[in-house]
Design a protein that fits this description.
heterodimer; A: 402 residues; 13 helices; B: 230 residues; alpha/beta; six-stranded mixed beta sheet; four-stranded antiparallel beta sheet; 7 helices; 28% strand; globular
């Protein structure tokens, strides 16, 4: 039999019972919409994280004292110093820029506005390593860095909180008890999914922070950029070997420092997203199963209702497999219709949810294909049993059926 | 006249053991091309079973059914379906049209299973409807047609494939006298003008009067076989 006329018949049959068809397809609609929603949102979230990590600097490595196993900073771990930073810059070939950093929480004041923020002392390498760009003004001069001058470059949040509509360049900013001159303003990076507001910071020459704020030559961390993204692992290994040597750690002994790389953070996030996705996939699978059973149920009802029609078709010469095919196509039309409605509902839903959560929305092509394929498969899978029952009817019995 | 079909000592048994019933108990008959045969008999005489066997809807338990020399009793389910598709047309007492489907589409249905294209289907179905005098009712559904009209649509559906054999099971059973006469005139015309062989089951002698031959069944065997000059 011609496939086209079977399809026409099937569509007509589905339209004939519009309400019943819609209710039958609802299970598939919900299942497919759930799949689309979860994958699209999951994809958008991880895209956002990737973008954020890119903003942090995807080839960024952070070297900190203390071991991972005993908590962030072990009391016994010796601090990192500027000499360590210089050694890393000199010896590790996979390393690009190195920015030693010391930070302190401070209260910044301008006139009668004040704002709690973090003051970080570093070099001009800091901007490059952390992917900050100067919007207005300038970075530090060599003279300022060598002298530990009271100059500062401020983030967008600090500028907005303290200066409002005033021009910050050249203005004086009080950091705790120090009076600093603002020499530059950073380009806004926006908020990150990890680490909060990236524009809430004040950068000063390292020596200024060490001498006047923390009162020690210790570094809180050394920010390092690998020469490119592919070299982060190599850079990490080089730094670890170098520091073990410098800190005289015996083979077999654990590190008393750690080198964090952004990949690890991404991996952790990936695991969390993975668990969430698996959970939602299970829910979607259950609702597709329930939807499939609904279709099987309605198709069985339909076969019973149309027993006489099947008898007529068989008597005028329809083959068993042609009757089977007809009912199978009907089941597939039902489930595919549900799948397409679910697809649209899922995409609209995720677009709305993405914009509400401030995530970038993008259609994931493979999930669209998968969702449609799944709904077709559900129709074939759950439509087969009722269709086979229709095909196996005895024509004489079927014609007698009231 | 050439022989179209023959039944040789055909039995059809239902049930097993004590519940065993012979609907046909050794029926032998042959029908020539171009005959218009009435199959008669009281209920339970085996006339409907005989029609089902002739139509390839039922298979003989023993005995042979040859149609144009082919042993139909030996065909499998799919082969029987193809046999019905290519050689037979059915008309039933209860019309058996597809509900909520137009007369035209009902008539087209056998052509769909023959894989004939849309345009050709339409042309032939309209032709068959015109032949039964319902060209102006093509778009009507069965619910919008009278009993006599529905039966004529069913006849159009049966003849649209130019069958070698038309099988009719009490085709006038549900109709009043005037409509009965219309339907019988139509069948007589098809038999005479198009040479379609017709086998019609009926229990009404008035209907048998239109035919050229009457075969009487009793207890599953042929009791009488009367030929009349047309």
């Amino acid at each position: 039999m011609i496939i086209g006329s079977t399809l026409v018949m099937a569509v007509r049959e589905v339209r004939r019972n519009t309400m019943r068809s819609i209710l039958t397809g609802l299970g598939i609609v919900i299942g497919v919409a759930a799949v689309i929603l979860m994958v699209t949102i999951g994809d958008s979230a991880s895209r956002k994280v990737t973008i954020d990590i890119g903003k942090l600097g995807s080839n960024l490595l952070i070297v900190m004292p203390g071991s991972e196993r005993r908590g962030p900073i072990a009391a016994t771990a010796p601090p990192l110093t500027s000499a360590d930073a210089a050694a890393i810059a000199a010896a590790a070939s996979a390393v690009g820029q190195v920015a030693p950093a010391a930070s302190k929480s401070v209260l910044a004041v301008v006139g009668n506005h004040n704002h709690n923020t973090l003051a970080t002392g570093s070099t001009n390498a800091y901007f490059g390593v952390r992917s900050y760009a100067i919007a207005r003004g300038r970075a530090f001069t060599d003279a300022e860095l060598q002298a530990g001058a009271l100059a500062c470059v401020i983030g967008e949040t600090v500028r907005r909180e303290l200066f409002r509509n005033q021009d910050p360049l050249g203005a004086t900013l009080r950091v705790d008890r120090l009076s600093c001159t603002v020499v530059g303003v950073l380009v806004s990076k926006g908020s990150a999914t990890l680490g909060g507001d990236q524009d809430d910071l004040i950068v000063m020459p390292l020596l200024a922070v060490q001498r006047r704020l923390t009162g020690s030559t210790d570094l809180g961390a050394v920010f390092v950029s690998a020469i490119d993204e592919r070299s982060t692992t190599r850079a990490k290994t080089q730094i670890e070997q170098l520091l073990r040597q410098r800190r005289r750690i015996q083979p077999g002994q654990a590190d008393d420092f750690m080198v964090q790389d952004m990949k690890e953070i991404t991996k952790t996030l990936g695991t969390v997203t993975g668990i969430l996705t698996a959970l939602l996939a299970a829910i979607a699978a259950v609702s597709l199963l329930v939807g499939g059973i609904g279709i099987m149920n309605i198709m069985l009802v339909s076969v019973t209702e149309r027993t006489r029609e099947i008898g007529i078709r068989l008597s005028i010469g329809a083959l068993g497999r042609e009757v089977l095919f007809q009912f199978l196509v009907e089941a597939v039309v039902l489930s595919t219709l549900g799948g397409l409605i679910g697809l649209v509902a899922g995409l609209v839903g995720s677009a709305l949810l993405c914009s509400a959560l401030g995530l970038p929305f993008a259609i994931v092509p493979w999930v669209v294909v998968l969702a449609v394929a799944f709904s077709v498969a559900v129709g074939v899978g759950f439509g087969y049993f009722p269709a086979r029952r229709a095909a196996a009817l005895d024509p004489i019995e079927a014609l007698r059926h009231e | 006249m050439t022989t179209l079909l023959e039944l040789i000592d055909v039995t059809r048994r239902y049930g097993k053991g004590d519940a065993e019933v012979f609907a046909l108990a050794g029926a032998t008959l042959d029908i020539a091309q171009g005959e218009f045969v009435a199959v008669m008999g009281p209920s339970g005489s085996g006339k409907s079973t005989c029609l089902n066997v002739l139509g390839g809807l039922d298979r003989p338990t023993t005995g042979s059914y040859f149609f144009r020399g082919v042993d139909v009793g030996a065909l499998d389910r799919d082969q029987l379906a193809r046999f019905r598709r290519h050689y037979l047309g059915f008309v039933f007492q209860g019309y058996n049209l597809l509900a909520r489907t137009s007369a035209l589409e009902n008539v087209e249905l056998p052509l769909v299973y023959r894989g004939i294209g849309r345009r050709e289907r339409r042309r032939r179905a309209l032709g068959a409807l015109a032949e039964v005098g319902l060209a102006d009712r093509a778009g009507h559904t069965p619910a919008e047609l009278s009993g006599g009209q529905q039966q004529r649509v069913a006849i159009a559906r049966a003849i649209v494939t130019d069958p070698a054999l038309l099988l009719a099971d009490e085709p006038t059973g549900n109709l009043d006298t005037v409509r009965k006469d219309e339907i019988m005139q139509l069948l007589v015309g098809l038999n005479r003008d198009r040479g379609i062989t017709i086998v019609m089951v009926t229990h009404e002698p008035e209907m048998a009067a239109y035919t050229t031959r009457a075969i009487h069944f009793r207890d599953g065997v042929v009791e009488r076989d009367l030929r009349r000059a047309a």
